[in-house]
């Protein structure tokens, strides 16, 4: 058997590649050097420009479901893009489909799945199910068939281009403080502290607080200025109100990593305000006024161009390139997906960042522009998804533009609207997947206004995943203590009810409880109370420390409390069909992946499982209690 490795892929001579209804008879162990791993992928030019499996060969054997002939499957997803075996070719390949498929499909599928796992292992390819259980997984909240996606749109900043947060946001913070100083605010001695905030927190502009809310909007943790508030203070301040992001005059959601520098500066200026350091010459100022001043200072840093000019002059100091990323996009493009870049950044900045991050890792003389069917800069999102704006074509390297009313393949444009993208690519709605890092600007608005499919990029997921693994022992001990308190508390409550009934001259719940003497009942309750008090003393600090492996102040990104989801997680579940830590994770899944959402457990699921086991009706397929 002849094997060639080209373009980071395996090509096997077709004449010696026998396929029997999905079974591949190929002993990879005979070719140990052809065990590709994702870490050492490189795009190599095929020898003599020949690929052993040509598109004409594929077309003879398979057909692809077109839009006009597509249907919906049993999960409600379009079958567009699905591969089909041409039945007339089965005999030519010596395959008797009916004979091979004899027997119960359950047995056939079980055998085929086992052999598929074995072959994936032999090829050195990690299967998607294993990949999902890793920091580099792609996680699905709503079933998504990538085969039915005709076009994929990408945001740039913190999506295709990942910045070193301390470097980028640190410089943004520096420029912000310079502008605040020029406005008369006291900023001497302040330093950038990126650990002060995390994505998904909410600024309370009325009170000068930063809060973390659960999925229902209840505040679980809060900070005033740079000082964390006690649980008691949080309860007193927010016990009777919910975070409502629709009230934009009060609440500001930290949607993206770009929010870090603004939030840090705001919280530090709250401390200066509380300390009476704000000059009276600035007039009557409250917390909202401070927020406006910080926002204005940061806006000036972006608009005046000094910040981006510095980053463009030395991108290597701010950008963290991902060598796998260009290959992931190249796979999508070669699979027939139309790729579109839609960014709010201007042309010169976009071109500089993309060249730095992409060109080095693309094959031959290919440049970053060659990946995209359309590039749109200065898009003005979220308005780009909401309304129409004039579109201009960028016609020179210097950025000279002219009005444009009709797009062309590979064009570079400024402004415009999402409707123009749909018209140009001849696709619409759920045929488009948009990938971005901003919950509101990228993900929410493209879904709400256009019904595009959506993917959220959140780099912090990798750190959180690792932190959750490290804290397994701590969380297991904490859960055990809480369960112990619940059992002890149940007994105490029953004895308390028995005592209550006894004082009213009524019998207790059971004969045994009624027959307990007064001293035994009282002593038992006293002992149980002491146990519960000691448990509380142990549990409280452990709860406070839960999540400190991720952030000592705020805990985990996705959680609010031990079991509940954070407000950020609720936003992700509501607006993002899939989410992941980086775009290059698509490389581990192929452009043909069918993402299926996981079972969503309910509070009573665990009780029904427990009841089934207790009564001897446990399902053999249930291998443990459902996760909560």
TrEMBL record:
Keywords: Hydrolase, Magnesium, Metal-binding
UniProt source species: Papaver atlanticum
InterPro entries reported for this sequence: HAD-like_sf, HAD-SF_hydro_IG_5-nucl, HAD_sf
A Pfam family it matches: 5_nucleotid
NCBIfam families (UniProt xref): HAD-IG-Ncltidse
One annotated GO molecular function: 5'-nucleotidase activity
Family the UniProt entry places it in: Belongs to the 5'(3')-deoxyribonucleotidase family.
Name listed for the protein in its UniProt record: 5'-nucleotidase
Superkingdom of this protein's organism: Eukaryota
Source species taxonomy: Eukaryota, Viridiplantae, Streptophyta, Embryophyta, Tracheophyta
Gene3D superfamilies with a match to the protein in the record: HAD superfamily/HAD-like
């Amino acid at each position: 058997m002849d094997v060639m490795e080209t373009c980071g892929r395996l090509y096997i001579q077709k004449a010696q590649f026998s396929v029997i209804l999905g079974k591949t008879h190929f002993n990879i162990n005979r070719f140990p050097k052809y065990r590709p791993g994702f870490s050492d992928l490189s795009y190599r030019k095929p020898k003599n420009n020949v690929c052993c499996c040509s598109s004409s060969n594929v077309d003879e054997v398979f057909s692809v479901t077109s839009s006009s002939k597509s249907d919906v499957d049993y999960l409600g997803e379009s079958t567009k893009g699905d591969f089909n075996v041409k039945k007339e070719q089965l005999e030519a390949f010596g395959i008797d489909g009916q004979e091979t498929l004899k027997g119960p499909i359950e047995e056939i599928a079980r055998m085929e799945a086992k052999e598929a796992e074995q072959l994936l292992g032999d090829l050195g390819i990690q299967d998607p199910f294993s990949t999902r259980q890793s920091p580099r997984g792609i996680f699905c909240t709503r079933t998504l068939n990538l085969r039915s996606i005709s076009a994929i749109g990408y945001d740039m900043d913190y999506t295709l281009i990942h910045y070193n947060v301390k470097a980028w946001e640190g410089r943004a913070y520096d420029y912000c403080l310079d502008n605040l100083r020029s406005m008369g605010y006291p900023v001497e001695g302040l330093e950038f502290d990126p650990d002060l905030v995390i994505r998904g927190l909410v600024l309370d502009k009325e009170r000068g607080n930063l809060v973390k809310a659960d999925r229902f909007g209840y505040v679980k943790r809060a900070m005033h200025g740079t000082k964390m508030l006690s649980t008691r203070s949080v309860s007193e301040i927010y016990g009777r109100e919910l975070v409502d992001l629709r009230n934009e005059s009060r609440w500001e959601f930290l949607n993206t990593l770009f929010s870090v520098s603004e939030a840090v500066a705001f919280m530090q200026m709250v401390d200066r305000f509380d300390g009476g350091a704000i000059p009276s010459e600035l007039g009557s100022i409250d917390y909202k006024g401070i927020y406006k001043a910080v926002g204005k200072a940061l806006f000036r840093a972006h608009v005046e161009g000094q910040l981006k000019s510095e980053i463009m002059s030395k991108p290597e100091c701010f950008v963290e390139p991902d060598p796998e990323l260009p290959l992931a996009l190249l796979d999508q493009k070669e699979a027939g997906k139309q790729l579109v870049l839609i960014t709010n950044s201007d042309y010169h900045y976009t071109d500089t960042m993309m060249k730095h991050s992409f060109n080095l890792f693309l094959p031959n003389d290919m440049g970053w522009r060659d990946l995209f069917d359309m590039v749109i800069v200065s898009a003005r999102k979220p308005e780009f998804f909401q309304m129409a704006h004039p579109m201009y074509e960028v016609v020179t390297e210097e950025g000279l533009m002219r009005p444009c009313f009709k797009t062309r393949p590979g064009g570079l444009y400024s402004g415009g609207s999402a409707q123009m993208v749909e018209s140009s690519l001849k696709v619409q709605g759920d045929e488009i997947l948009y990938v971005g890092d901003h919950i509101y600007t990228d993900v929410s608005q493209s879904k709400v206004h256009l019904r595009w499919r959506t993917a959220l990029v959140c780099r912090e997921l990798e750190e959180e995943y690792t932190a959750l693994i490290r804290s397994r022992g701590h969380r297991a001990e904490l859960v055990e203590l809480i369960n112990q308190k619940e059992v002890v508390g149940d007994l105490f409550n029953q004895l308390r009810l028995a005592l209550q009934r006894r004082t009213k001259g009524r019998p207790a719940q059971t004969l045994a409880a009624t027959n307990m003497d007064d001293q035994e009942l009282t002593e038992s309750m006293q002992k149980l109370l002491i146990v519960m008090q000691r448990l509380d003393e142990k549990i409280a600090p452990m709860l406070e420390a839960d999540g400190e492996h991720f952030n000592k102040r705020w805990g985990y990104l996705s959680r609010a409390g031990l079991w509940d989801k954070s407000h950020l997680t609720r936003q992700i579940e509501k607006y993002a069909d899939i989410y992941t830590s980086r775009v290059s994770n698509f490389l581990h899944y192929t452009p043909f992946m069918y993402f299926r959402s996981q079972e969503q457990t309910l509070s009573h699921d665990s009780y029904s499982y427990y009841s089934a086991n207790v009564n001897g009706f446990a399902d053999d397929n249930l291998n443990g209690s459902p996760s909560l």
